[in-house]
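Researcher: Structure prediction, please.
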Amino acid sequence: MQKPPFANPDFAFRRKNPRGLAAEVAYAGALSFLRRKYSKDLADIDLAVIGVPFDLATTNRSGTRLGPRAIRAASSMIACWSRIYPWDFDTFLRIAAVDWGDISFDFGQPGTAPESIRAAVAEILATNTATLALGGDHFITYPILQAYAEKHGKPLSLIHFDAHSDTWRDPDGRIDHGTMFFHAARKGIVAPERSVQIGLRTYNPETHGFNIFDAGAVRSMGTATVAERAREIVGDNPCYITFDIDCLDPAYAPGTGTPEPGGLTTTEARELLFGLRGVHVAGMDVVEVSPPYDHGEITALAGATIAFMLASLFAERFPRHPREDARAAKLSEAAADGGDPFTESGEDT
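Model: Predicted structure follows.
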């Protein structure tokens, strides 16, 4: 008897293979990112998705500590798709990925959180596994970048999507989610001259050497041109991509702590990310999703979709997996026979 569609729940626990996707009921089951298996075992894993539920460096509304959970929940709605538009390959056949879970720290000792984040990411990178972090406020990118700079032994390029520059000048010993890239540039963690900031629409008189394409430039130049310029600036340098969800206009992402009108549409964001194909992506994150201010989960869904886009951008430089062709042929055969192609996805479990 043929197994019915959606008959294999809870792949977050039961998945045997770290590659592939398969159909599940979106409204039930464990909240892993895109139904990846929860695992701390990173042997032969290319990408670890990590949650960083930290929001103690915010300048306005808090709530992003709940962001990783919300993004994971929203990701279940797109977890059964092997590809995300407009990519022409199956992301999770190209790369082996797991949901590593959340980084923990003692909220009674908030000063220890940055080192906890840096150390956890460094431990993952030591296995030659990259990270896709789900925030959390934007400060979390700073200790993550510290771990990446240590791993690569040189300043990274940064592609930074945001409404804000996050480079406001700060004295030594002080840092928040609007100043961390000032410190990162000053301390040689990132190379501003080989980095790009996209979507900005707040005023900062100092660029600190970063190449800026604000929201107006995206609209006047077009997404394809901005993406091409970004690729030229970054070159072949290892690049970290960070996407603050408030880069999107509040109409598309109301659930964030510091919304700014006049932002990008989700379509523009997707086009920009797709246009970055060929960049040497070392790591990435999506931050500042704040569920208490969301409506209809649209911010969380945008965050999950952007995270999937980032994973696809990372996977693009990996070789094509033989199962991509085999799976495509099997789905085509099932469709030609009038069967349900979802029943053919058990091989991905």
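Model: The chain has one domain: 34-329.
Researcher: Thanks, that helps.
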